[in-house]
């Protein structure tokens, strides 16, 4: 009895000191993430050009602006539904509301380099379920792979139906589809990791983690789930591409629906490949350049690019900033409940 009471007494101070340290680490991590967001926002604002954007936005009627935002919202909600399906398949046991809050709240971190800040979703999930990052990482991989597959297919189809091509369009399409295929085919990913380890003979821990991730991805490889996820991604990204087409028509620069969608998707993929926060800089440069090649003057291509970024990227960030504190509060409450059990 004496030993038990002594041990329990000695454990008390440790637990009391662990909690403040954990809170300090959480606060430091959150501040670091928001520092990246602020840096990304500054860069995005500089690249977009707010004065010109505001002037062109004023020319749009309220219903036109609402249509652009509505099509973007359709994309976010569809992809949020896909995230919920993946989370349910992984066995997280979270409800649809929680999954939507995690997915949409993560948009607040879209302007971090390489969108790494969106991994905050794993932080919220870890708090609410007790799952480690390694167990939930496949959710991020399969979600990104589904986006790549959908965008690659849309780009390929749009280029096939457009009268003129896009320089680099086919290679980007192929790369996107290959990346999606590798991530969504666990056996193939595991073989690549094994071959890489044997060929390099180094980084055994890295390749071991890739192999573990490949095995954990097997839960998502059911044909029905893969097809449904692809369909959701196709409809969602088509909605945003079609919004770009409508905007160009309203601004008197109709280049055809196929070409408009191809330019939008290609620019989005190209911007993502740069690793810049939110694809800022690369996406805008690609859009303006491709529109110019289609005979659209800078007086139209510049504001059109700025407006579509406002109604897609910036709109997503706005939604994320609203839901971010909700996700933080809800996840902390769930974490406290788990710790007090």
TrEMBL record:
It is found in: Cell membrane. Coiled coil: none annotated. The chain crosses the membrane at residues 60-78, 90-111, 150-183, 219-238, 244-267, 279-298, 304-324. GO terms for cellular component: plasma membrane. Residues 1-10 have a biased composition (Polar residues). Keywords: Cell membrane, Membrane, Transmembrane, Transmembrane helix. The keyword Repeat does not apply. Pfam families: LPG_synthase_TM. It is a multi-pass membrane protein. Residues 1-20 are annotated as: Disordered. This is Integral membrane protein. It comes from Maritimibacter alkaliphilus HTCC2654.
């Amino acid at each position: 009895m004496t030993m038990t009471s002594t041990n329990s007494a000695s454990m008390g101070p440790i637990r009391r000191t662990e909690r403040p340290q954990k809170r300090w680490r959480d606060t430091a991590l959150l501040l670091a993430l928001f520092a990246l967001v602020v840096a990304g926002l500054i860069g995005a604002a500089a690249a977009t050009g707010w004065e010109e954007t505001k002037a062109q936005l004023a020319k749009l009627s309220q219903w036109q602006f609402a249509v652009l935002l509505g099509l973007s919202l359709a994309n976010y909600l569809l992809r949020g539904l896909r995230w919920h399906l993946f989370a349910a398949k992984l066995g997280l046991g979270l409800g649809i509301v929680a999954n939507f809050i995690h997915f949409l709240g993560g948009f607040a971190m879209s302007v971090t380099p390489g969108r790494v800040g969106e991994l905050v979703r794993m932080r919220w999930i870890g708090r609410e379920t007790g799952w480690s990052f390694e167990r939930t990482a496949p959710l991020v991989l399969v979600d990104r792979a589904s986006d790549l597959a959908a965008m690659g297919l849309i780009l390929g189809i749009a280029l096939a139906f457009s009268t003129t091509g896009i320089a680099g369009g086919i290679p980007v399409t192929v790369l996107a589809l290959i990346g999606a295929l590798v991530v969504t085919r666990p056996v193939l990913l595991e073989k690549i990791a094994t071959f890489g380890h044997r060929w390099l003979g180094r980084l055994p821990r890295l390749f071991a983690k890739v192999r573990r991730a490949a095995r954990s991805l097997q839960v998502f490889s059911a044909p029905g789930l893969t097809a449904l996820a692809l369909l959701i991604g196709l409809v969602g990204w088509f909605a945003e591409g079609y919004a770009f087409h409508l905007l160009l028509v309203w601004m008197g620069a109709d280049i055809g629906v196929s070409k408009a969608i191809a330019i939008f998707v290609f620019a989005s993929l190209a911007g993502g490949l740069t690793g810049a926060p939110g694809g800022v800089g690369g996406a805008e440069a690609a859009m303006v350049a491709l529109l110019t090649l289609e005979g659209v003057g800078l007086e139209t291509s510049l504001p059109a690019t700025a407006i579509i970024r406002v109604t897609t990227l910036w709109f997503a960030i706005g939604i994320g900033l609203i839901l971010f504190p909700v996700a933080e509060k809800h996840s902390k409450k769930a974490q406290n409940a788990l710790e007090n059990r």
